[in-house]
TrEMBL record, chain B:
Domain of life of the organism encoding this protein: Bacteria
Organism encoding this protein: Halomonas campaniensis
A Pfam family this chain is assigned to: PP-binding
Organismal lineage: Bacteria, Pseudomonadati, Pseudomonadota, Gammaproteobacteria, Oceanospirillales
Residue ranges constituting the Carrier domain according to the UniProt record: 7-83
Signal sequence segment: none
Name the UniProt record assigns to this protein: Acyl carrier protein
Amino acid sequence: MPSLGADMESGTLVEWLIRPGERVERGQVVAVVETQKGAIDVEIWEAGSVERLVAEEGQKVPVGEVLAVILAEGEKAEGESAPADRPTPEAPRAPSPRAPGLSPPPARATPEVASSGARLRISPAARKRAAELGLDPTGVSGSGAGGSITLDDIERAAKVAEPGRAAPSPQAAPTTDARGAMRQAIAAAMARSKREIPHYYLGHTLCVEPALAWLEAHNAERPVAERLIFPVLQLRAVALALEAVPELNGWYRDGAFQPAEGVHPGVAIALRGGGLVAPALHDADRLAPDAMMAALRDLLARARQDRLRSSELTAAGLTVTNLGDLGVESVQGVIYPPQVALVGFGRITERPWVRNGQVVAARCLHASLAADHRVTDGALGARFLRQLTDHLQEPERLWPT
Amino acid sequence: MADLSRDTLRETVIDAILAVAPEADVDALPPGRPWREALEVDSFDFLNILVDLEKRLGVSVPESDYHELVTLEGLLDYLESRLAA
């Protein structure tokens, strides 16, 4: 069970999208897991074949517990004991071949090893009860001696199986319970942020007339459905600033800064009726304008339909929040732990602006940075913010040809 | 489409808004105030509403006219004049 947020302790496996014996590709969605942040599509990070599914649909699984065993290319199926002492935290991580120097095992693993070879350790009472409940005990994790399944384990599995079966459909409005759970998750993360992270705040008001002119020119001949929205420019400017100042792209873990791999800024998305998610926009530094708009559109749509992917909840090292559409002038952000910074944008509003010694009316925007002082200092934050605002003020630099 | 009554046009616009923001209480909007902020419609939602209105009415709003759509009345006036043209 992958950790899909700083304060996630467990998740409920709603649905397996793979079967034993099936081949899986890197990045493939293999399961749906219900968390406090809603239903998440869990992706796998190694190609291989599914040896067996350990967790059962409906089961609540603590973070770090094995969900499934995936064998890498050419790897031999092992007995039941091996996977247990090798946790696969992100189901994804396949065990590496044990003896790389040896010739690969026969292509066809003997089916006995995978299925009947693994005798289930379960007490007679538990087996009887499982049969009564119509519950397949193979997916239940045992808490008894030697990992054997006890009657209590079966009862517990039966209990969590019920709500799991009634998993919300993708389109269903979140229930009051889901709302409450999300509120609690936000409360825990934000309390931790304010308790642990010494924030410093920087802000800058900039004139966005050139950026808006760029956007209007880009959109002028396009049908509405193919237009860009201003947040695409903002996210692009953030991505380029992160490239220039990578010290603000990562996580503070175990007393040290750990840089993020790639530029995947989180996008704070308010959910209608309350709540907030901040999935990562992957490779924001590499996307052309239309591709970035398509990626953002997809992300926003899936966030609102409760269909985010696991990698989107863990990849961001910095989050961007835009409260301008709600009329807010400036944002003093709260960092999403363990990330190290948050960028906040306010509304675009017309103001008196001095240009060439003349006061003119210009559309302006306030950009802010909240950053973790354990990791960076104000001078570095200022460099980041300057990079960000320079790019927004000179839009031709956003996607240089 | 040109003979669409103001009330029908209003219904159409409200339908398009509700498709994006189902909980929006459009009737409670203070007249003459920006509707997007009041209904928490962000730039992405706004784009989707315009796509929807284009489908329903055949009116494509260029970005340079967005400033005329700030109030609900302004939006209706704008659509009315475009439909009459």
